[in-house]
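> forwarded from #structure-qc
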């Protein structure tokens, strides 16, 4: 995988946003592979496809690319219209998301990761303030994707800190968390919330007592559930069965970093 961005392909463009789009889309097209099935290339949709930028013609997964000039992913990714995004993540055509950062001075990719579509819920989409009445698109409301609310195992790096991650590890990580895609509504919310609770605990190992500290927060989110601790234990068992945490001894677990 060549991390260099070929600036020559954008030599006829003047707009900085257009140049960035051309450079990064070309890089993905010529360097990436499908992180779901491993096919060694991705196909590009026609320009202005409303849902996605790339697709795999083998497993038919779709991908939307977001990129920016930076050395780190940061906490939030700027996206388009809020209403469109909410509608999209709740649809059957919701794409997976590629996030790419690059060093403008070196013209090299330093981070490239995928967040599977099943990690996207309305909780991670932050509505931006509507544009002022004097703006060209007065009243338009955009959104940001808050990636701090996505569990660590939902951020699958293909390139991290300018180092290429082994392809087999990328595909394995996808496969280990793909079961989340079969969950719907509140069931998906619960498993993602408990994954975030586990991430928030310091250290490699944790106890039931540690994770019960999130009970009050979960009660606020799920006010109709009067058996929060039972639900927590149920979700921990799912994570254990899927190999995302290890059972150490009664009431004790260890995190698994994929």
């Amino acid at each position: 995988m060549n991390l260099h961005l070929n600036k020559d392909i954008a030599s006829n463009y003047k707009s900085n946003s257009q140049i960035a789009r051309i450079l990064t889309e070309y890089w993905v097209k010529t360097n990436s592979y499908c992180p779901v099935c491993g096919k060694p290339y991705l196909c590009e949709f026609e320009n202005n496809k409303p849902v996605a930028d790339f697709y795999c013609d083998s497993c038919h997964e779709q991908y939307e690319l977001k990129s920016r000039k930076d050395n780190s992913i940061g906490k939030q990714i700027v996206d388009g219209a809020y209403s469109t995004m909410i509608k999209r993540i709740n649809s059957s055509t919701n794409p997976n998301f590629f996030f790419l950062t690059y060093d403008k001075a070196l013209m090299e990719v330093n981070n490239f990761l995928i967040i599977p579509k099943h990690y996207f819920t309305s909780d991670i989409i932050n509505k931006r303030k509507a544009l002022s009445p004097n703006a060209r698109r007065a009243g338009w409301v955009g959104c940001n994707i808050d990636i701090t609310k996505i569990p660590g195992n939902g951020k699958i790096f293909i390139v991290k800190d300018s180092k290429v991650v082994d392809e087999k590890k990328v595909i394995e990580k996808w496969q280990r968390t793909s079961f989340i895609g079969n969950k719907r509504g509140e069931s998906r919310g619960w498993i993602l919330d408990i994954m975030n609770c586990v991430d928030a605990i310091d250290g490699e190992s944790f106890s039931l007592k540690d994770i019960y500290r999130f009970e009050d927060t979960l009660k606020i989110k799920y006010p109709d559930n009067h058996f929060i601790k039972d639900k927590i234990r149920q979700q921990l068992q799912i994570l254990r069965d899927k190999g995302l945490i290890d059972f150490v001894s009664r009431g004790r677990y260890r995190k698994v970093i994929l």
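QC bot note: Residues 49 and 81 are 15 Å apart (CA to CA). The domain at 185-255 is CATH 1.10.10.10 (Arc Repressor Mutant, subunit A).
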